[in-house]
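User: Run a structure prediction on this.
Assistant: Running it now.
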Amino acid sequence: MQSRTAKDIYEDLAKDRDEFLDRARECAKLTIPFLLADEDHNAMDRFYTPYQGFGARAVNNLSSKLLLALFPTTNPFFRYVADEADMQEAEEQDPDIRTKIESGLKQREKVTMHELENTPFRNPFSLALKLMIVTGNALVYLADDGNIRVFKLDSYVVRRDPSGNVLEIITKEMLDPLMIDEKTREEAGINLREAKDKGVKVKSVGLFTHVKRTPKNWEVYQEINGKVIESTKGTYAKDMNPWLPLRFSRIDGEHYGRGLVEEYFGDFVSLDGFRQNLTEGAAAMSKVVFLVRKNGQTRIKDITKAENGDVKYGSADDVSTLQAEKRADFQVVRETYRDIEAELAKAFLLNSSVSRDAERVTATEIRVVARELEDTLGGVYTVLSQEFQLPFINIFTGRLEKSGKLEKLPSGSVTPTITTGLSALGRTDDLERMLQFMEIIAQLPGAAERLNVGTFIERTATALFIDQEGLMKSDEDIQEEQQQALLAQTAQQAVPGIIQEATKGAIANGQNQETGQ
C-alpha cells in the first residue's frame, strides 16, 4: 500500500483550518488587508480598502508595544539559570561560588544579546506579531543561515494534541521550476526540455515541507510532485525545532489560535459601517446644487456661466441651494462612532501613557508598557513566552554553542528562563529586591555589620547588567593599598620625632660651640 504524500496530508488538515482562515481574512479586511489576501488574489488585483484607518493604527500600535515588551532593547528578555542542586553542591566547596557563577552567566547573557542584536530578527518578528493580532496565527522559521521567514495561515497547516503540543507541521510554497536546481528537478520528475519541445508552458510546482514529531525528535523532509527529495531529509532535537507555529491565544482542543481583532470583530464591523455612512453622508452634504425658480426673473444660463464678481440681472429670491437636512441624524452616528473607537482604543492601547517616539526607550517606559499589556491582554504572555520566546532563545543558544561563540555546558546544568509580564525587565527586578533588602536590614541593629559589601556590590552590578571588568578593585588591590597607606601613615608619624631629635641635636651642638668659645 502506497504511503500518503505530504500533499495528501496537507489537504486533509486544511479542512480543519478553513474556518479559521475564513475568519482571519475577514479580520484582515477591516484592519490591514494585505496581511492575508483572498484565496484567488494575485499581484494584479487590488486589495479591499476599509473606510477607516483605525484598524491599521491599532494593530501597528499594539504590535510595536508587544515587540518592545517581549524583546526589550535595554535588557535581556531571558536569564541563564544554573541548576539549583548543582549550585548548592558547589557552595559546599566554595561559599562564594554563587556570586562567581552569576557573574559568569551574566557574561554569557551579554555575549548572547550581542549576537542577537546583530541578527535581523525584529522586522520578521514584528510581522509575526501583526499576523497573530489580526489572524491569530503565524509560522516562524529560523533558518540555519540566520534568516527568519514568516508564513501566513494560508500557506501552512498544523496538528496539535489535546494539550496543545505540536505534532505535525506542513508548509506549501509555489515555486518556478527554473528556480529549482537540476538535481532536484530530476528527483521530482520535472523535465523542462520536454516541455519546451512540446511548446507547453511550465507551471509553478508545489513544494511541501513536512515536519513531524516522533517520540525521540523531529523529522523533516521536502516533497515535490509527490516525490520526496532525499537531500532534504533531516532531524531536529526535541527542543531545537526551528519551525515555530505561533498563536495569539490558546484554546484547548483547537489546532489554531484566535486573534485579538476577532475578539472585537463586531466593533470593527460597526466602526467600518458607521465610518462609511459618515463618509458618504459628508460627500452628499458637501455637494452644492443651485435651484432656480421656474418662470423667475433669473436665468439658469446666467447662474451657470457667472464668474466671481460678475453682475447679472435677476432676483435673489429666484435662487436657492439644495441642502440635506440630516445634520442632527449624522450627529448621532458620529457620537456612536467615537464611542466604539474609544473602546477599541483602550483594547489596543492607543491611549497609552507611553507614546514617546525615540530610538532608545528607557527601562521605566518598558516597564509601563509591560504593565499595560499585562492589564489589558492578561494571559497572552504565557502563550508567547512558552511558544515563542523560549523556543527561540533555546535554538539561538544552541547555534551559538555549535559555532563556538558560547561555551557548551553539560546538558541541564544551565537553562534559559524567560522573564515576561511585569518581570520582563529581567535583572532590574533583582536590583529592586536588593534595594528593598537594604532598607530592611538598615533598620535592624547590628545587621549592617553582617553584610558582605563586596558580594553585594558584585550582585548589584550583575543586576544592572554592568561589566565589572576593570571597574571594581580586587581583594589583592585593596590589601596592597591598605599596606601602602599604613606605611605612609607610619612614615608621617615618624617625621615629627625625627625633626624633634634633629632640632635637639642642633641646639646641643650650638651650646657646645658657645661653651668652647
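The chain has a mean pLDDT of 83.
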